[in-house]
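Per reviewer request, we include the raw input and output of the structure prediction for the construct analysed in the revised manuscript.
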Amino acid sequence: MSGSSLLPSEAEVGRTALRAVGVPAANLILEEQSHHTLENLRRYRATFADSRLEPVLLVTNRFHLARCALLATGQGIPHQLCAAEDQRMQPIRHASRLLFEVLLIHWYITGRILTALLGSHRLAARIR
């Protein structure tokens, strides 16, 4: 259990599901310290990227796949994507979640462009 919560973390639930379908524990990395996807990928890169030759499998919900791929590519992490859900989600029913992801993707791309235009190494370090 993470923190003071009574519910298992998202990472713990994912690990349990992957173990249930036969993925060896040695192939799973549980990361629960990050507060957002970019921080999570930075931690991965700092810890494992130099020692891994194969792409990492990133498991996340379907709405988050595009942003996850964009951020992993920006971090220079070879990856494959896997949707956490069995079925496609209805975009109309989850329009607010979809819009949120679109806004975050826009924010990230805009930040990369502005960083390049301004030549700011300090800003680039925050998003790379």
